[in-house]
């Protein structure tokens, strides 16, 4: 697929790659808040943020894990090519279960990952480690994260179109 502007979306970074601090956008106060600190040895594997102007099954903007050369910072807006989605169900502490998919994007400015157009271009090892990160991250919060499989760029873009508010 040829890269073009219509296939990219803006992503607001909440938590940078290699960071133990989990930041979250507070829509009401219009600030980034420290939400939690991960235990020693746990860090975000890539930048993590959201697609503004969307609303997912959990009521929040769609989540995106952004693959790029270097970490960004909270509040940085990155133009990203969405390459796939980790389909998932998440059970909250109150036992309520909801869809909480994780989009996977690549910064359009990335040099190292410029050839990644679809989730299938990433190694099975990377995909497995991304799944395990979200399982462990949610387990630490008393939640259950159940990966339901991977889907490619086309399905991910459809999810974004459906979630636009």
UniProtKB/TrEMBL annotation:
**Which cofactor is recorded for it?**
Mg(2+)
InterPro entries hit by this protein: Pyrophosphatase, Pyrophosphatase_sf
* A GO CC term assigned to this protein in UniProt: cytoplasm
State the organism of origin.
Flavisolibacter ginsenosidimutans
Keywords recorded for this protein, A-Z: Hydrolase, Magnesium, Metal-binding
E.C. number(s) listed in UniProt: 3.6.1.1
Could you tell me the Gene Ontology terms of the biological process aspect for this record?
Answer: phosphate-containing compound metabolic process
Q: Name one GO molecular function term.
A: magnesium ion binding
Q: What class of enzyme is it?
A: hydrolase
Name of the molecule in the record: inorganic diphosphatase
